[in-house]
């Protein structure tokens, strides 16, 4: 955070869809994002089905104004119902939405998970460290990269 | 031996036929030979006997015939008419010769009587001779008186002269040898009888006889079969001259002769020389004959009655031929019989072979049909039983295979469950941990002012605990991964591997001022690169860890290689605190720690992972250390284990052995190589 303190934030806030079933993890992640100087709009859903509903504006997410199409999707792997891989594979196969960058955020560092994610078209794979301070640094760096350095398609 | 092998390789049928023929032929041949030779002997004896009888009979008849002829002449010589006739012819011849009227008168007076006598008794001629040898009368040769006279006077070797002389000297009737008469073209002999008046010899009467009578006797072939004949010969000079025709040569008389001492006609040679006997000889035609030879001494004749041996043994031959024909028929019969018997023996065997072929082809339902109760039937039954047992055994094996298969499936399931557990553990166990750690941090950050030192310490402990728990979980996962994941073996440059590892822990090395020495001559080793890297990393890390604290000198770590024969032998040595030998056997246990985590951080999983990897490679690991004297970890990797394991895995893949069997074998092999009891080995 300190390292990036001199960076001037010029970019618009982005819509980030965060899929995470664990309440505690949601709180931790949101705190890390809110602590970052890159302010973004975080939409939280609790499982894979909700991710798809959100993107396709189904069910309770029919209101496109309230639930705008996300610029980024952050997926946990372990989720009840449709899990992170399910969502990843579905979206990356859909020509309408496969441009949306998908970041896998998980507590696992299983090689197979990493490989499977990239093979399925994930754009990034981040392991959540145990220590919060480290995690906060990672989120800061993540925001800096995705919202400041990286260019996203504006078509959404 | 080769012949015997050839015989042994024959089909059963051929063997049977050969044996049967052998068994049947030998007695058959012996019987044929014995009966042939016996019958031949018997026949020869019989023929010899009959020839003997014929010969004796013929000899007697010839003798009596000649005796009769002789007697005729003797009788004539005693008749008064002949005495008177000789005296008158003598007187007339002496007075005026043959052409004188006196002679003619006498001739007219006596010729009818003398001619009648000559004719009536079947003589050729009748001659009257004066005692001085002058012929004074001949029935036939009136015109040849002169020559007759000359013969008697000058040819003293003529039969006529000889017989005249003999009769004159002996004063009794004499008979000459036969000689050829060119005029009659017949053999003839002279019989001479002296004629006396009182005691005075007045002349000799000579009758010339031909061989017709003898020919008649010879021509009688009764009892002589087809080739039997009689030969009568007289010894003239050094020859036995035939005086009568033979059965197959009507002109034999005086044309056929046998020189004494020649090889042929031994019988007649002996006969004319006065011997008598019988036997097998070669006749003048060169044929083998069975003959009897007799001598007729009174007339100096030899006689042979003979028969061709060929004819004698013909019946024996016929008997032999009949026997041979029977033998041949028997042979054919035996061959047929042998073939039938052999077939009855070999057919079940052939059936058995065919069924065995079917079974070995995989059709276990085939059975031998047998309805006999002999050995072959028993064999068939045994074979069927064996096949049943085989089917049963196969079924058992299938069952076992199924069981093994089931266990394999079960094992796979358990493995999968374990995988799932490990996966869950890595995700789900760590999520709450992160919660614990993170919220402790939040408390610390958000309530800094409200917490006293003790509160802060407690929060710190909470975070440390979570951290430690996290590392334990990670090590546990690592160990589980080491067990489950098998990387392919490859040729690994160990020096390169170690330098890549030291690169990773460069910070620790420089930070602790470690004097790290790595041997340069470590060879290429065939192994699991990633896992062996784990081994070196753990061992080097340990060495640094336990030699960096409380050490008066700088930590020294040495990685070396020794050639251990069938093994590559590595060691990692340090000058650290060392390990009490009483703990040597425990330190490879999971989470086994000899020190508190405050003193030396770590979970205690490292050496367990190291041991697991070495075990998987078929090697061994041990420690050489004492407290305060540093520690040296030695481990071995078999040089040829790779191949063994690979081959083993191929065998398992192909289903030739089960995994359990392979493990058992590897265990034994390893026990042999390392000298450890098999029950203490883990593969």
Automatic annotation (TrEMBL), chain A:
InterPro entries attached to this UniProt entry: CheY-like_superfamily (IPR011006), Sig_transdc_resp-reg_receiver (IPR001789), TCS_response_regulator (IPR052893)
Top-level taxonomy: Bacteria, Pseudomonadati, Candidatus Omnitrophota, Candidatus Aquitaenariimonas
GO biological process terms on file: phosphorelay signal transduction system
Domain of life of the organism encoding this protein: Bacteria
Protein name as catalogued: Two-component system response regulator
Domain Response regulatory: 15-143
Any matching Pfam family: Response_reg
The entry's keywords: Phosphoprotein
Stored SMART domains: REC (SM00448)
Native source species: Candidatus Aquitaenariimonas noxiae
Positions bearing 4-aspartylphosphate: 76
CDD domains: REC_Rcp-like (cd17557)
TrEMBL record, chain B:
MF term (GO), any: ATP binding
Enzyme Commission code(s) on record: 2.7.13.3
GO CC annotations on file: plasma membrane
Domain named HAMP: residues: 343-395
The species this protein was found in: Candidatus Aquitaenariimonas noxiae
Full protein name: histidine kinase
GO biological process, one term: osmosensory signaling via phosphorelay pathway
InterPro entries: BphY/WalK/GraS-like, HAMP_dom, HATPase_C_sf, HATPase_dom, His_kinase_dom, HisK_dim/P_dom, HisK_dim/P_sf, Sig_transdc_His_kin-like_C
Domain Histidine kinase as annotated: residue spans: 424-641
Classification via SUPFAM superfamilies: ATPase domain of HSP90 chaperone/DNA topoisomerase II/histidine kinase, HAMP domain-like, Homodimeric domain of signal transducing histidine kinase
Top-level EC class as recorded in UniProt: transferase
Residue ranges crossing the lipid bilayer per the database entry: 16-36, 323-342
Catalytic activity from the UniProt record: ATP + protein L-histidine = ADP + protein N-phospho-L-histidine
Sections of the chain in a coiled coil: 387-417
CDD domains registered for this protein in UniProt: HAMP (cd06225), HisKA (cd00082), PDC2_HK_sensor (cd18774)
